[in-house]
Amino acid sequence: MAENDEAVATPTGAERLWSAVSTCVSRECLTHESIDDALREWLHLTTRLRGRDSDSQDEVLLCADMLLESWLFRMNKDYIRTQIIHSLLQEDESDPLLLLQLMYEMSRVERLKAEDLMLVEDNFIHHLFRAVEGVSDDVQDLHYFPSIRVLLVLNEQYMLASTDSATNQDATPSSLLPLTNRVVKCLSLHGPMFRMFGENIILLLNRETETSLQLLILKLLYLLFTTKATYEFFYTNDLRVLLDVIIRNLMDLPDEKMSLRHTYLRVMYPLLAHTQLSQPPHYKRYEVLRALRLLRGSDTAHFAPADETTLRLVERVAKVAWLGVELIDRGQDKELSGQAEVARKMLGMSLLPFQFESSIH
Predict the structure, then answer these.
(1) CA 171 → CA 4, 168, 175, distances in Å?
(2) C-alpha span between 314 and 308 (Å, rounded)
(3) SS3 for 348?
(4) Which of 140-144, 267-271, 323-327, 353-357 has the lowest mean pLDDT?
C-alpha cells in the first residue's frame, strides 16, 4: 500500500492513473454488468487521483468531464444516470463527494428523466440539507458545497420536469402524474431546521461569477418567494443582504448578460412583495427606485435603451405596494417635491428622493 501511495505522488504514477481513467471510460461495454465494472473502476481511479490533493476538486471535475464526454456515457447515459442516483440513495461505500460532484455535472448538462427523479425520496433530500447544516459556513467547504449544488440542480430538474408534463401532449399517463419538487417540499415543511442553507446560497450568490450557478440559485429563490409556505424561510438580515446583492448585480451586469438581469428582476418582485421586506421599516426603498429608474433608461447614458422584457419586469417590480409614493407622508412628499423642483430648475436635471435625503439621522 505504501509503495502504491508513493507511486501516485510521482509524476509517472499520476500519468499512469490518468491513462487508466481514459482507458476505463473508452471501454466498450455491452452489458449492464460490464458498465457497472467500468463505473466502479472509474470511481476507484478518481478516488486515488483525488487522494493526491484532498483540498482540490480539480481532479474530480476533470474525471467527471472525461466520463460525461466519453463513449461509455454517451452510449449508456440513461443507465449510468440511474446507477449514480441509486448509489447516492443507498449511501454505499463509494465516496459520496465524488458521486455528488458527478451528479451535479451530469444533471447540469443532461435532463434527468421523470423516472429517475421519482427515485429521489425525501430522506435523501433531508440528508443533503443536514450535510449543509452540519459543517462550517465556508462556501468552499468540500463537504457541503457539492450538497448545495446538487440541491440547486435537482430543483431545476424538478422545474423542467414540471414544465414538460404540462406541455408534452404525447406524454404517457404515468409521466403526466404530478412530480413533487422535494427540495421545496422539504423547506416548506422543515424550513427552520435548514436556515444555514438559505444563508449560504445568498452568500454564494454574492460571490459567484459563473452565470449558470447564479441562475440555479435564482430559480430556487423564485420558487421560495412565490410559495406561501416559504415566504419567510430566510432570516430578515439575509433578505437584506440578498436585496443588496440584487441591486448591485442589476447595476453591474453587462448588456450581453441581459437574460441574467431579467432573472434577477423576476426574483426581485416576490422578494419585495411577499417576504419580511414587505413590512416596515422598508429597506433600501430609494435605492430600489433608483435602480428601477436607471434600468428603465430614464435620464441616463449608463445603460443602453431598455428592451421590452426589461421594461415589463421593471414595471412589475414598481407595482410593489410599499414602493409607491403614497406611502410617503404627505408633508414629506410635498417637501421632497419642492426640493426636486428647485434641483430641476438649478441643475437642469431631475432627482429622486434618495438623492437629496440627508444621510445623517
Answers:
(1) 52, 6, 6
(2) 10
(3) coil
(4) 353-357
Q: Buried b vs exposed e over 97-115: b needs ≥16 C-beta within 10 Å?
A: bbbbbbbbbbbbeeebbbe
CA 88 from centre of chain: 21
Reply yes or no on whether the pLDDT at 246 is more than 90.
yes
Task: For residue 296, give every residue at least 6 positions away whose Cβ sits within 8 Å of its Cβ, in sequence order, or none.
Answer: 306, 310, 311, 314
Q: For residue 26, how many other CB atoms are within 10 A of its CB?
A: 12
Q: What φ, ψ does residue 100 adopt, rounded to 5°?
A: -65, -45
Q: Which residues neighbour 354 within 8 Å (Cβ) at sequence distance 6 or greater?
A: 285, 286, 287, 289, 290
Report the alpha-carbon distance of residue 266 to residue 254 in Å, rounded. 18
The Cα–Cα gap between 189 and 210 comes to 31
Among the listed residues 131, 27, 18, 154, the one whose alpha carbon sits nearest the alpha carbon of residue 81: 154
Which residues lie closer than 8 Å to 16 by C-beta, 6 or more apart? 7
Residues 6+ apart with CB under 8 A from 28: 71
Share of residues in the chain with pLDDT > 90 (%): 33
0.90 surpassed by pTM = no
